[in-house]
Amino acid sequence: MMVTSRFTGLWRHADFMKLWAGQTISEFGSVVSRDALPLVGVLTLSATPAQMGLLAALGSLPALLIGLPAGAWIDRTRRKPIMIAADLASAALLASIPVAYLLGALRIEQLYVVAALAGGLALLFDVAYTSYLPSLVEREHVVEGNSKLSASESVAEIGGSALAGALVQALSAPLAVAVDALSFLASAVSLALIRKPEPRPAPPAHPNLRREIADGLRALATHPILRALTAAAITSVFFGNFYAALYGLYAIRELGIGPAVLGLLIASGGIGSLLGAMLAAPAARRFGVGRLLIGSAVLSGVLGLLIPLAAYVGEAAVAFLFVGQIAGDLVGTIYTIHALSLRQIVTPDGLLGRMNASVEFVQGSAATIGVLTGGLLGQALGVQAAVWVAALGSMLPVVWLIASPVRMLRG
Predict the structure, then answer these.
(1) Is residue 206 part of a domain?
(2) What are the distances in angstroms from CA 406 to CA 161, 361, 402?
(3) Are residues 102 and 244 in the same domain?
(4) From CA 70, how far away is CA 77, in angstroms rounded?
(5) One domain for residues 76 and 142
(6) CA 272, CA 404: separation in Å to the nearest integer?
(7) Helix 142-171, helix 259-287: angle, nearest 10
(8) How far apart are CA 21 and CA 144, in angstroms?
(9) Nearest 10 degrees: Cα torsion 118, 373, 262, 166
(10) Which helix (H) or strand (E) segment is 68 a member of?
């Protein structure tokens, strides 16, 4: 009797497994750092609310300032060396925090610099990484690769915050950041061990940064599939970030939910994301990519209605939020994996860096505007009314997909 191994596909792809292992470790470290870095400001440096707001803003600023030029630069060279260099620089940067703390020299200004530079390095890595995957694995395995990498993100989201809390409690917030520095070293080593040679991109005939950036933006605007996915992403991110500004206020002040329960509700989203990552590939085989993208966008919008409806169901409010969180993140992860994979598949290799950077730029802009708009609407209309606007707006992204060739995709 022949015994067939259950480990097929990318499980038997040694180079992808190295990438996946390094990224899994790095994701845990990044969650630890994400949670511990603000605590350095709060617990160690007694930062003011204004200083904490500036610290948060500096972390997201690089996507708006350097995202587009970064994409053009990444398309001119091999992606793996950029990823290794970004990992090593991030490790050194984060290691400076525990070192300064032990020397008694840590200041809030150093956190500002670390937050801004780490955000820039993360952007470089992410653009290079999403552009590198299609050259590492065969195109038919891109969805599987994104699913596995998304699963690592979800597991890190579930367990990373608990790990961060334990490390801060045991070691102090600055020393907890050292864990992330070590995780970046692990990622760099895993990348260095990948043996598959990466072809050097063909240099542009007439290098012109402005023109190359414009090519990336033009691809999003003119390619019918990329245009639909980008418009849907902008709409989704804009309305989705209303929740970033209002969700905590809504849950605590409008629904009377305590901080501990709110934390559990948010953590449940990580479980939903993990399930979504596991179901993404079989769901596409069952329904086809086009129907799956449209169906998951519709479901995501419908599930989003549970959040404002929670205000009308009394003691069942927590159940409404729980279902909205876990099922919404499950469906949203399926959509995100296939939208990313589809962008990677339809974009020529020489344009992947600029395409991914352009997506990061427009989504980052929409997120920033969405947070500000959500806060202003919450102030003007009331939190509950603004949450309704967010929920209803989150049903709009599917319109872009239905009106595009996405609806005809089968494979």
Answers:
(1) no
(2) 37, 23, 7
(3) no
(4) 11
(5) yes
(6) 28
(7) 170
(8) 15
(9) 10
(10) helix 67-74
Residue type, 194: I
Residue 258: Cβ within 10 Å count? 10
Q: How many CA atoms does the CB half-sphere of 169 hold within 13 Å? A: 6
Whether residues 369 and 242 fall in one domain: yes
118 and 91 share one domain: yes
- C-alpha–C-alpha distance, residues 300 and 232, integer Å: 12
Q: Is residue 205 part of a domain?
A: no
How far is the C-alpha of 105 from the C-alpha of 346, rounded, in Å? 50
Q: Which domain holds residue 347?
A: 211-408
Closest by CA to 283, choosing from 407, 144, 396, is 144
- pTM confidence score: 0.78
172: DSSP letter: -
At 39, list the tokens. Answer: 């605590």
Distance (Å, rounded) from C-alpha 244 to C-alpha 263?
Answer: 14
Radius of gyration of the chain (CA): 21
Tokens of 188: 């760099």
Contact 358, 220 (CB under 8 A): yes
Nearest to 37 by CA among 104, 142, 117, 124: 117
Q: How do the pLDDT tens digits run along the chain, 411 residues long?
A: 333 445 557 888 899 999 999 888 888 888 777 777 777 887 888 877 667 767 777 777 777 778 788 888 888 888 899 999 999 999 999 999 999 999 999 999 998 899 889 888 888 888 888 888 888 888 788 888 888 888 888 888 777 767 777 777 788 888 888 888 898 999 999 999 999 988 887 776 667 778 888 888 888 889 999 999 999 999 998 998 777 667 777 887 888 887 667 767 877 888 888 899 889 889 988 899 999 999 999 999 999 999 999 999 988 999 999 999 899 999 999 999 999 899 988 888 888 888 888 888 888 888 878 877 887 888 888 888 888 999 999 999 999 999 999 988 876
Last residue of a domain, one of 152, 172, 196: 196
DSSP assignment letter at 105: -
Report the alpha-carbon distance of residue 337 to residue 323 in Å, rounded. Answer: 21
What CATH number does residue 157 fall under?
1.20.1250.20
Which residue type sits at 141? H
198-202: long-range contacts, CB 8 A cutoff, minimum separation 24: 198/78, 198/79, 198/80, 198/132, 198/135, 198/136, 199/78, 199/135, 200/77, 200/78, 201/75, 201/76, 201/77, 201/78, 201/349, 201/350, 202/350
